[in-house]
Amino acid sequence: MDSIEVLPNPVISNSGIVSSKFCERNIATFHQACSWVKNLPYGSNSSNDDSLIIFQEKKATCTNKHGIISRLAEELDLEIYKNLGLYRLNDEIVTGVNNIIKPYGLEFIPQIHCFLEYKNFRVDLTEGNCNGMLQFLLIQ
Asked: Pick from 49, 46, 71, 72: which is nearest to 59 by CA?
């Protein structure tokens, strides 16, 4: 995955509900918004229906972290999108999974992970978060 620095870094103008939430927190640029979201603890929110919940609960999974930043990008007219990828969940990704799946003859369980896509770049705002993943390998 690529770093936040590959993304454009405009100043956040108060042009919508998401940008106003970042402005209220004195977050001035797109990179600062991405860093703020990336540094939030990894954890499930009480609702996945509204990515604004992360401003209240100050935590999020990949779905809401990338969702809020893609909404901000839309407000700022940036061509940055939340994208989904599949990976093979097994002990290579999370230790202990094989103990659960091997009795059923499975080598992995297909799982979905979100990330940001900009041109040919992919940025994961949960990379390095304490989410239990040892690594992330997209199925190509």
From this structure: 46
